[in-house]
Write a structure and sequence with these properties.
about 5% strand; Glycerol uptake facilitator protein; mainly alpha; single chain; 3-stranded mixed sheet; 2 domains
Length: about 325
């Protein structure tokens, strides 16, 4: 089976990048290397973290995409997968250590910049934050596919040009920047959600990369018994299983919440029909929802709302109604 995949994906091995070349790309620290590659990596990581944090703070999608392109964090993550494939325990530890230090480095940069820069951060209205604090199984599926593409691009000699696209598709530095930003704002739950997004992407890249490296035949260059990398495999598999459960729960919660909002919207339409009020928005809160309505005069009796509303889950959510009132006046003439 593996031989057939090798023929299909790598033209019988003629398009496979030599293992030495892949190691040169991915291993930042080796027995014979100096610190130049690690210094270059650290500088690029710091700059990408600054760019990503700035993009998050000003809610700029273009800036965050720029940070994704220059961010080098995928290199040591894929290196873990390669080291497991070729049974290189020391390189597994080195690369994993670089990943751990990189995570802390990016989070600290995001935290410090958020404190130093006079920018008000509102997670509810900042799309760069809100889009990264509630990961689900779809994010994990995307991460697996991107990890496969990244591994394929590195192992096939004629696909290096797609790596910038892989860098954009996989979200590594921006979620960590979000962790730092929201931690500075005291939003611990949002920080956990953003870190889960990063962790799911990293674990998916390691697993998918190791699979592609094995298909490419690099496992034939194993340096020892596969039991030497049994522990990291168990750790990664355990984290992956935990992520599937956690993201499955958040996915179910997101679906239930969407259904709940739709039912609130339908009940509100019945309740406000014929009144002087209109529904403005429905926003989730920790124990229920906030429903904003705009109009004038007295609100209709809420009995009609609760008679129409049927919760999705077995408990009754708290629904807070906020009334927006006011009058509209024309702008005065210049000088008036």
């Amino acid at each position: 089976m593996r031989a057939r995949l090798d023929d299909l994906l790598f033209d019988g091995g003629t398009k496979t990048t030599p293992l030495d070349g892949v190691q040169e790309q991915l291993f930042l620290l080796t027995k014979d290397s100096g610190i130049d590659r690690l210094v270059r990596y650290t500088v690029m990581l710091a700059l990408s973290a600054i760019i990503a944090t700035g993009g998050v703070l000003v809610n700029s999608t273009a800036t965050v995409i720029g940070a994704m392109i220059v961010a080098p964090l995928a290199t040591p993550i894929l290196a873990v997968g390669l080291a497991i494939t070729i049974v290189h325990p020391r390189q597994v530890l080195r690369s994993a250590f670089i990943v751990a230090m990189s995570v802390a480095f990016v989070v600290v940069i995001g935290f410090i910049l958020t404190i130093l820069l006079p920018v008000a951060v509102n997670p509810d209205t900042n799309g760069q934050i809100s889009g990264r604090v509630s990961p689900n199984l779809i994010d994990l599926l995307i991460a697996i596919a991107t990890g496969l593409v990244g591994g394929f691009a590195i192992t096939r000699s004629d696909l290096a040009g797609v790596l910038p696209g892989v860098a954009i598709a996989i979200s590594l530095v921006p979620p960590l920047s979000v962790v730092g930003v929201v931690l500075a704002s005291g939003a611990w739950a949002d920080a956990l959600g953003a870190f889960l997004l990063f962790l799911s992407n990293a674990v998916a890249m390691i697993g998918a990369g190791a699979l592609v490296f094995a298909i490419a035949g690099y496992n034939k260059a194993a340096r020892g018994d596969r039991r030497q990398v049994k522990r990291p495999i168990i750790i990664i598999a355990s984290i992956g299983a935990g992520l599937v459960i956690a993201l499955g729960l958040t996915s179910a919660q997101s679906v239930a919440q969407a259904l709940e909002i739709q039912r609130i919207n339908d009940a509100a339409a019945t309740w406000l029909d014929g009144s002087d009020y209109d529904l403005v928005s429905i926003k989730p809160m920790p124990n229920g929802f906030v429903m904003e309505v705009i109009g004038s005069g007295d609100l209709p009796d809420t009995t009609a709302f609760y008679d129409s509303f049927r919760p999705v889950l077995w408990y009754e959510p708290v629904i807070e109604i906020r009334k927006i009132t006011g009058t509209q006046e024309p702008l005065p003439e210049p000088g008036g």
